[in-house]
Structure formats: structure tokens, C-alpha cells
Known about the structure:
Oligomer: single chain
Order of helices and strands: HHEHEH
Number of helices: 4
Low-confidence stretches: none
Amino acid sequence: MSFDKILGIHAQSLQLHAKRAEVLASNIANADTPGYKARDFDFREILRQEMPQSVTLRTTHQNHIPLDNGVISPSEMAYRIPSQPSLDGNTVDSQLEHTAYAENAIQYQTSLRFLSGSIQTLKKAIVGQ
């Protein structure tokens, strides 16, 4: 029995939603910072890449260069294309960021509830209820 098979992609989804919440919160916090460029990443594309693959990279010796252990590497982050940038160069659209943050929070809660239900089902199966 593999937890990866039981829980599916939801564990990775939670990590991505948490990282996206950080990125969106940073955008919102910098809405009035001159020259700040709003950032985001393509959630679906990153999640698709997280699907199990046959080959994964890993270090096999302590002197090997460590892999990027972050959920999202800086190269996967993109700048938002502003619909109407401000005169000071800031590209944060507060309404867009708040909407994206709320949507992300709902999706996070959905994945969390699914995982919770899966874990409860496993507990019942183990206990024999």
C-alpha cells in the first residue's frame, strides 16, 4: 500500500497552493511599492510536472551540488503582464491579487479536506470500522 497512490496529487497540490499564497500575499503587500513587479506561476503546469515520472534527480554524494529543494524554483516564476501599470512602474492590480488569493485559499481548503477524508478512511480501515 503506497500513500502516494492513496493520496494522489493532493499532497503536492497543498504545497503549491501554500507557495502561491505566499507569492500572492507578497504581491498584495507591495501594491504601493514603486517599481514592484507582480509575480505568479502557472499552477496547472507546475502540478502537471509534479506527476510521478520514471526518472528523478537526486544527489548521491555529499559533495554534489544540491538540487533546488523549494516548491517553486525562481525560474518557474513569471511576471504578470499588467493591464494598466501605474506611473511608478508597479504592476500589482490589487483586485486581481485579492481575487486570486481567495481562489487559491478555496482550492487549498478543497485539497486539505480531500486529504483529511482519505486519512479518515484509512484509519477506519485499519481499526476495522
